[in-house]
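Thread amino acids onto this structure.
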């Protein structure tokens, strides 16, 4: 397939990580786990855990502000604010409306998307469509995840894997050289209960009993998720590279979702990429759900690993199930 002409580009990025570092040894003091178990199964060494009162919207304000600064965009110029979060500050209205207000993006429409770990890549595609259709000139796509508030800290198989953080990007119409080349996204709701929060919605409203039984907290079938993640991310990478008219040899850097180093290595191997071409920060932050990719992207740019003319591949996987991959040229 011929490489398409990009219509929309990433013009700036930003990130926010709460300063409080929690190491595996810190967790081992609170629960029956070890640094060795966590490191060898996942590659995670430490994660950031925000103060319980820190809001997802406040983290989103910080990453969003930095993304606007790096793109040279004023708040009033933003036409659309999309916020991806699995940890909204409240059920109604959206966290995006809070982020919009905190940032002063007074001329924008704002809404949340809930696609778990895949949310930021989904958001990128939605913003791309909005701009490509001529509905606006500037989009802000924020992922903000306060995972520590929805984890069950008595479930050692799950709580050691996640951390808090936020990442964001500003999108603008492309000059035809730089920008998004392809995107492939899918969902499979039949596997929803592999990773979910049973209570808190219409299906199982909150009451003292469900809270006592910890049904409002996140539950995960880790082994099943692992198998699906490897298969789906590989398929998504294939599809996105094919749509972009590229092969693994043409990809200069892969910035995957950071859930587990073993999933990242399997995805890179399938796409034909050596690990030198893969950006990894799961060791420092754990899985920050949809914030993982934009945080990694912002760090990769800061470290000089993203240079003009590169082809970047990002792939993701999460609750839903949801998954996808995107290729863009810098
Ligand atoms: O963004 C997508 C979100 N989720 C993911 O990406 C997670 C995908 N899954 C995974 O990363 C892996 O499946 C895990 C890291 C969650 C687990 O790794 P595993 O190699 O599949 O381990 P396992 O589930 O087979 O558990 C092995 C053992 C069990 O003990 P027994 O039954 O074999 O005696 C667990 O009880 O490890 C035990 N275990 C722990 N031991 C120490 C589970 N959690 C811990 C822990 N510390 N924190």
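Threaded sequence (330 positions):
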């Amino acid at each position: 397939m011929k490489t398409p002409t990009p219509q929309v580009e990433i013009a700036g990025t930003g990130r926010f990580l709460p300063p409080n570092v929690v190491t595996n040894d810190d967790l081992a003091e609170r629960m029956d786990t070890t640094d060795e178990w966590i490191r060898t199964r996942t590659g995670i060494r430490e994660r950031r855990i925000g103060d319980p009162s820190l809001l997802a919207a406040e983290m989103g304000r910080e990453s969003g502000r930095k993304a606007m600064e790096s793109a040279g965009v004023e708040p009033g110029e933003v036409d659309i604010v999309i916020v991806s979060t699995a940890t909204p500050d409240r059920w109604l209205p959206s966290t995006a409306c809070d982020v919009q207000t905190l940032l002063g993006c007074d001329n924008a429409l704002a809404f949340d998307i809930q696609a778990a770990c895949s949310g930021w890549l989904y958001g990128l595609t939605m913003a791309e469509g909005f701009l490509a259709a001529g509905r606006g000139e500037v989009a802000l796509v924020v992922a903000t995840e306060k995972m520590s508030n929805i984890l069950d800290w008595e479930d050692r198989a799950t709580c050691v894997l996640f951390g808090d953080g936020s990442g964001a990007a500003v999108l603008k119409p492309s000059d035809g050289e730089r920008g998004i080349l392809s995107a492939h996204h899918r969902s499979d709701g039949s596997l929803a209960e592999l990773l979910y929060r049973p209570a808190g919605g219409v299906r199982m409203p909150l009451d003292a009993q469900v809270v006592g039984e910890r049904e409002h907290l996140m539950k995960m079938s880790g082994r099943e998720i692992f198998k699906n993640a490897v298969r789906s991310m590989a398929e998504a990478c294939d599809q996105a590279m094919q749509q972009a008219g590229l092969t693994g040899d043409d990809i200069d850097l892969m910035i995957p979702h950071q859930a587990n180093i073993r999933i990242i290595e399997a995805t890179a191997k399938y796409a034909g990429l050596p690990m030198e071409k893969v950006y990894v920060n799961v060791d420092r932050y754990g899985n920050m759900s949809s914030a993982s990719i934009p945080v990694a992207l912002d760090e990769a740019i800061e470290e000089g690993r993203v240079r003009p003319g590169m082809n970047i591949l990002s792939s993701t996987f999460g609750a839903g199930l949801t998954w996808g991959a995107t290729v863009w040229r810098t």
